[in-house]
Write a structure and sequence with these properties.
556 residues; alpha/beta; Urease, subunit C, domain 1; nine-stranded mixed beta sheet; five-stranded parallel beta sheet; 22 strands; 21% strand
C-alpha cells in the first residue's frame, strides 16, 4: 500500500509578525517583538530592541497591532454536526441515554444529519462549512471527520485544520478515539488497546447519576489494577468523584473538559475543582454546536465564567493553557505545538489589541477580533488587510460583524472529497438543504445493496444510478449517533446489569413527516443575531452564564 502523503508539508513563506507574543511557556513569558516563520516552523522570536540577525534582515515583517498566541488545539468535538443550531434542551438529564433517543433530539439532530450526511452533494458542503467554522474561531487542530465510501473504505478527512486521528506525520502521533462505553467484559481488551496507543480519547462518565459513574467503575480490573494509563484522556468525566480523579492522576491519565455542553444538558459539569486538586492535566473541548459552543474561543469563555463563579479555580493563563499547551501535552505533540518557541510548528492565532493583560484580551474577544490564523506557517484566515500581502490565490472573502475577512482554502494536499468547493457555495447548499429538508427527504431513496457494516444506508438523489467503476461516493460516519442495532452506551442499558444481551436499537427510518425546516448555524457568535437569546432560553444554564457570556464578547 502506498504511503499517504504528509497532510501538512513543511512549506510556507518566510515572513515575520510583530506584536505581543504570548509564548504560553510560562505566565510571564510575554514578548513584545517579532516572531519569524519559515518553512512551516518558528525560525526565531526577537524582542524589540534586540538586534535582528543578518539571516533575517531581508525578511518581510508585518505589524499585526495585535497579540499572538499558539493556535487552539481542541480535543473534543463532533465536527460533522456543527452545521446545526443550538438545541433548546427540554429538561435536565442525568445521563446521555436519556436524551440521545428522544423524538425532539432525533427530529432536530440525528434525523437531519443521517439524511444530509448520506445524501450526495452534501457531505463536502458540511465538511467545508464546519472546517471554516473552526478557523473563524482560532482552532488549528481538532478531532477529525470520518468518511465512509461505497467501496467500503473508511478514512479521516484531510483538511486545513489538523485532525488528531490521522496526520501521516511521525512527529505528530495519531490519536485514537473511543465513543462506546467500556463494559466489564471488555476492560481487559481496552487496557491492551491503551498500552498500544500514544493517546486515546474516551467518552467517560457523561452524566450525573450512578449509571454514568459505572462507566468509570468498569475500568477497574482488580483491587489495584485499572484499565487506565498515561495514554487515557477522559472526555466529560461529569460523574467522577474526588477519589476517581486521584486514581486518574496516579495512573497518569488526563481529562478533556466540556463545561458548556455539560451545563446545558445536565445542569452541572465535572467536579473540576477536585480534578485540578488531583493534579491531572486538563484540556478543553466545545463538544458540538447542538449543545455546546460554536468554537473553542467560546468554550474558553464558559470555562472562565464557571471558574470565577466557583471560587476562581483557574487563572486566565491556566484556562488558555487548556486550549494550547495542555492539549498538546495530552496528545504527545508538545515537542511540535502548544507553545510558541523556536523550532516548533507555526500554528498561531492573532487577536486585535496589545493591552497590558493579554490573557484578558483573548478571553474577552469575539471572532471579529481574530485578525489572523496560521496553520503550519500558512495564513489561513484573518483580516483582509493582513491576509492580502500573502497573495490572493485561493482566498475567499467573508464579512464578520462588519469586518472584511479572508479565508485561504487553497491546499496542495487537498482532500478530493471537498476539492475546491468554496465556503460561499457550501454555505448556500447547506442553507437550502436544511430549510428544505422535508422536500429533500422525499427526493432521496436508499441506494440498494450499499450498506456499511452497521447497516447504515447510503442516500442518493432519486434518479441517480450507481455507475460501475465510478469515483467513490463518500458519506459521513456520524460518531454521535448510535449505529443501527448497536448501543454505544451499554452501561446505561438496564439489561446490562443483569448480564442479558444489550437492547437493540430500532433501525432509523427517515421519513418526511418527522422533519422540519432547520436554520443553518451561524459561522460565528459575532454573526449570530439570535445566539444570546437562545442562551437566555436554556433552562439548565446557571444565571451567571446567561448574564455573563454576552459580557465576555466585549467587542460586539
Amino acid at each position: 500500500m502506498a504511503k499517504k502523503p504528509i497532510i501538512d508539508p513543511l512549506e510556507s513563506a518566510r515572513y515575520g509578525l510583530h506584536g505581543f507574543i504570548v509564548t504560553m511557556t510560562a505566565p510571564d513569558e510575554i514578548i513584545k517583538g517579532t516572531i519569524f516563520i519559515n518553512a512551516a516552523r518558528i525560525e526565531a522570536i526577537i524582542p524589540d530592541g534586540k538586534p535582528i540577525p543578518e539571516t533575517l534582515a531581508d525578511c518581510k515583517v508585518y505589524k499585526t497591532k495585535g497579540t499572538i498566541y499558539p493556535g487552539f488545539i481542541e480535543l473534543h468535538n463532533h465536527l460533522s454536526y456543527n452545521c446545526l443550531p443550538m438545541w433548546n434542551v427540554p429538561q435536565k438529564y442525568d445521563n446521555r441515554a436519556q436524551w440521545s433517543g428522544i423524538d425532539p433530539y432525533r427530529q432536530n439532530i440525528s434525523y437531519p444529519m443521517n439524511l444530509l450526511g448520506k445524501t450526495k452533494g452534501y457531505v463536502e458542503a458540511i465538511v467545508r462549512y464546519v472546517e471554516c467554522k473552526c478557523l473563524a474561531g482560532g482552532v488549528t487542530t481538532s478531532q477529525g471527520i470520518m468518511l465512509f465510501s461505497n467501496a467500503g473504505i473508511k478514512k479521516y478527512y484531510r483538511g486545513i485544520v489538523r485532525n488528531v486521528e490521522e496526520t501521516a506525520d511521525a512527529t505528530l502521533p495519531n490519536v485514537d478515539a473511543h465513543i462506546p462505553d467500556i463494559t466489564a467484559r471488555d476492560a481487559e481488551k481496552f487496557s491492551k488497546q491503551l498500552q498500544k496507543s500514544s493517546c486515546l480519547l474516551l467518552h467517560l462518565s457523561e452524566g450525573t447519576n450512578a449509571s454514568a459513574r459505572k462507566h468509570f467503575e468498569r475500568l477497574q480490573l482488580s483491587e489495584n489494577e485499572w484499565a487506565i494509563g498515561p495514554s487515557l484522556a477522559g472526555i466529560h468525566c461529569v460523574a467522577l468523584q474526588p477519589k476517581d480523579f486521584v486514581i486518574m492522576k496516579q495512573k497518569g491519565a488526563s481529562m478533556v473538559w466540556s463545561p458548556f455542553s455539560n451545563l446545558l444538558l445536565y445542569g452541572q459539569t465535572a467536579d473540576i475543582k477536585s480534578a485540578k486538586e488531583s493534579g491531572i492535566t486538563i484540556a478543553l473541548g466545545s463538544d458540538w454546536s447542538p449543545s455546546g459552543s460554536k468554537n473553542l474561543l467560546g468554550e474558553l469563555k464558559v470555562a472562565k465564567l464557571y471558574s470565577d463563579a466557583n471560587g476562581k479555580l483557574f487563572s486566565d493563563y491556566e484556562l488558555i493553557a487548556m486550549a494550547t499547551k495542555n492539549a498538546a501535552r495530552i496528545i504527545k505533540w508538545e515537542k511540535e505545538l502548544g507553545t510558541l518557541e523556536k523550532g516548533k510548528r507555526a500554528d498561531l492565532v492573532v487577536i486585535k489589541g496589545m493591552g497590558n493583560d493579554p490573557y484578558k484580551t483573548l478571553l474577552q474577544a469575539s471572532e471579529k477580533s481574530i485578525t489572523l490564523v496560521v496553520v503550519n506557517g500558512t495564513p489561513r484566515y484573518g483580516d483582509a488587510s493582513l491576509m492580502r500581502p500573502f497573495g490572493s490565490k485561493g482566498t475567499e472573502a467573508k464579512t464578520i460583524s462588519g469586518k472584511p475577512k479572508l479565508f485561504n482554502l487553497l491546499q496542495l494536499t487537498q482532500d478530493p472529497v471537498v476539492g475546491t468547493l468554496t465556503l460561499a457555495a457550501a454555505t448556500q447548499r447547506m442553507k437550502e438543504g436544511l430549510l428544505n429538508i422535508k422536500k429533500l427527504a422525499t427526493r432521496s431513496v436508499p441506494l440498494r445493496g450499499m450498506l456499511d457494516k452497521q447497516g447504515n444506508r447510503f442516500l442518493v438523489p432519486l434518479k441517480a444510478q450507481p455507475v460501475a467503476n465510478a469515483e467513490p461516493e463518500w458519506v459521513l460516519v456520524l460518531d454521535h449517533n448510535e449505529d443501527e442495532g448497536e448501543a454505544v452506551r451499554p452501561n446505561f442499558d438496564p439489561m446490562a446489569k443483569h448480564g442479558l444481551p444489550f437492547k437493540k436499537i430500532a433501525p432509523m427510518e427517515i421519513t418526511p413527516d418527522v422533519l422540519t425546516p432547520i436554520k443553518l448555524d451561524a459561522l460565528t457568535v459575532a454573526t449570530d443575531r439570535t445566539f444570546f437569546k437562545k442562551i437566555a432560553e436554556q433552562m439548565n444554564l446557571p444565571d451567571y452564564i446567561k448574564t455573563g457570556l454576552k459580557k465576555m464578547y466585549a467587542d460586539l
